[in-house]
Amino acid sequence: MNYFTKVLKYGLEYSYFAVLNILFNILYAIFSALAFVSFIPMLDVLFKQTKKVYEAPVYSGIGNIREYAENYFNYYISKQLETDISTTLIIVVSIVIFFFLMKNVFNYLALFNITFVKNGLLKKLRESLYSKVLVMPIPYFINKKKGDLMSRITADILEIQTSYLSILELMVREPLTILFTLIVMFTISPELTLFVILFIPISGFIISIIGKRLRKDSKEVQQQQSNFLSIIDETISGQKVIKSFLSESFFSRKFDKINHLLYKYSNKVINRKNLAGPFSEFMGILVIGVLLWFGGRMVLVSESISGTTFIVFMGLAYNILTPAKNLSKSFYSIKKGNAAAERVFEIIEYDKYSNDRTRNIEIEEFKDKISFQDLEFSYGESKILDGITFTIKKGESVALVGSSGSGKSTIANLLNGFFSADSGSLLIDGINISDIKRESLYKNISIVTQESILFNDNIFNNIKIGNLDSEKEDIISAAKEANAHEFIEEQINGYETVIGDYGNKLSGGQKQRLTIARAMLKSPSILILDEATSSLDSKSEKKIQDAINKLMQGKTSLIIAHKFSTIKKCDKIILIDKGRIIAQGTHEELINSNSSYKNMNELQI
Questions:
Q1: Which residues, 6 or more positions from 566, have their beta carbon under 8 angstroms from its beta carbon?
Q2: Which residues does residue 449 pair with via DSSP β-bridges, in sequence order?
Q3: Torsion of CA 462, 463, 465, 468, to 10 degrees
Q4: Is residue 20 very low, low, confident or very high in pLDDT (cuts 50, 70, 90)?
């Protein structure tokens, strides 16, 4: 199924408006053709070419309805011309005005209804895209640039809007306009109409040849737009590093390269698209020239058609050129939109359940133990974990220590369900974590990381994320437990204070206390602390550690820490090096039995 059809499916909910649009477009097309025909009696009057009929015609059945209507009109005009020419002119001019008025009224009504389809379709598409982003697995985001994802959600959706949705109003209107105009033209002169019919497929064929590379070039534009957004995001986020390392020139060169490629491919796409209009118009004028020659012979030589009728026929022929030109442009728009739609549907059609099909077990409450059994995990070709085996009993606090890159955070990510092990098993109460429903798993686990992840919202809502069903009293209580209530009350608007992107209006310690309050509000049975105090000053660390101690009470905890002072009271400490467990025991046991642990501890004294 092509992407255009896939996009249209999102508008099925608004089919009522689509039906009205089709109805009004049919009426528009009919009156568009009749509007030109209405010039015939006016021109006949002006050039005194009106066929004189002095006897009222007799109706002889539906088969002769056109002839009857034409003769009756001529009979009426013939009588009027003999008595009052001014009134006759008013009548024929009023006929022209009426048909053009109805044509434009129905055009507006058609556009009015298609607006609901276009905007509704876009709304549903955005909803589908955003809802899929929310449930994407963590590895997907690791393998994608943030700028690329942002480009798909913003720029590519905008491209679909301009390339696809802009032609929705043309899909019915323009073909119907051409169809009804051709029907009227056939009634006037079948021979002349054949020239117009030949023009449409020939023009379409040539345009299709010209536009072959458009989709490929459009895809390059979308990719360069992704790179463009990525470097803008990196530049804004990394201002401190860029300035402190005097690397402005490096990023400037990088930006110039991407900007040049975007300029290059954009020119290609726009120039190919711009070719459609002039080419289709030239083809139209070419046909008009042939019609003038052939029709002129019919008027002046064979006299098989009147001059006024031929003038109207030419108007009808030109009436086809605009919709034909629009349709040729729409061909380019679809090609251009396909590139954007392909990138958008890569996300929408991503099978988030590919690794979740066996996850059908729910755990209401953690009851016994967590078992890591011979786990192995790799990032690409690099092995991170090699045969990790240990157990965390309910209520225990287990710490992971080791140098950076030894695999500590990876173990936490496996327990969180963010990644799946290459081999071995991770069991919670004897159930393999890969069989547990993710929603059920996340209800029992909470994580506090070194980087305090907060959102550009007020303090109240940032804490409430921990439990969306909680009341205000619960949130305040969690903040007090996390030693956060005091500084929150000092804010200008208290709990209603908006803290900015990533909570940048707060200090590091304040941000961390909010994340702890959020975890307390959730009150999970399993707690993961990933270097939660490593980047704080001693004063903030004391407050955070006090809050963490309260948070850990009665919970099963997995702690990742560089500072040994925070883990001395843990039930078990596991020393990891290069993805392997080299020692485990209590703090005192490891001090007395393992030189590596002892040295690491002494370095921090």
A1: 533, 545, 548, 559
A2: 530
A3: -130
A4: very high
Tens of pLDDT along 550-599? 778 888 888 887 777 778 888 898 888 888 989 888 888 888 888 888 88
Which tokens belong to 325? 């030109």
- In three-state secondary structure terms, 484 is coil
What single-letter DSSP state applies at residue 458? B
Q: Are 284 and 318 in contact (CB under 8 A)?
A: yes
**Which amino acid makes up residue 49?**
Q
Chain-centre distance for alpha carbon 333: 18
Q: What is the pTM of this model?
A: 0.68
Nearest to 551 by CA among 503, 586, 513, 511: 513
What Cα–Cα distance (Å) separates residue 524 from each residue in 413, 419, 420, 425? 16, 20, 22, 23
Q: Which of 202, 199, 204, 203 is nearest to 290 (CA)?
A: 199
E strand or H helix at 446: strand 445-449
Using one digit for the tens of pLDDT, what is the confidence trace for 158-169? 888 777 777 777
Q: Is 600:577 a contact under the CB 8 Å cutoff? A: no
Nearest-angstrom CA–CA distance, 310 and 255:
60
308, 44 Cβ separation under 8 angstroms: yes
Tell me if 571 sits within 8 A of 398, measured CB to CB.
yes
What type of residue sits at position 560? I
Query: In whole angstroms, what is the distance from residue 412 CA to residue 34 CA?
Result: 74
CATH of 3-348, one of 1.20.1560.10, 1.10.3720.10, 1.10.10.10, 3.90.226.10: 1.20.1560.10
Our measurement of the distance from residue 112's CA atom to the centroid of its chain's CA atoms, rounded to an integer in Å, reads 24
Sheet holding 397-401, edge to edge: 445-449, 526-530, 556-560, 397-401, 572-577, 580-585
Length of the chain: 605
Task: Retrieve residue 7's tokens.
Answer: 């996009």
The domain locations on the chain are: 3-348, 369-603
Q: Are 591 and 597 spatial neighbours (Cβ–Cβ below 8 Å)?
A: yes
Burial class (CB in 10 A: 0-12, 13-18, 19+), 43: middle
CATH assignment of 369-603, among 3.30.230.10, 1.10.3720.10, 3.40.50.720, 3.40.50.300: 3.40.50.300
User: What's the Cα-to-Cα distance from 145 to each of 142, 223, 289, 562, rounded to whole Å?
Assistant: 8, 11, 55, 29
Rounded to 5 degrees, what are φ and ψ at 308? -65, -40
Strand order in the sheet with 382-393: 382-393, 369-379, 423-428, 431-432
Express each pLDDT in 63-118 by its tens digit: 555 565 565 555 555 555 556 666 666 777 787 788 889 989 998 999 899 888 88
User: Measured between alpha carbons, how far is 184 from 193 in angstroms, rounded to an integer?
Assistant: 10
The interaxial angle of helices 15-37 and 307-348, nearest 10 deg, is 160
> Considering Cα of 317, then 321, then 327, then 331, what sign does the dihedral take?
positive
β-bridge partners, 559: 399, 529
Nearest one of 219, 304, 309 to 269, comparing CA atoms: 219
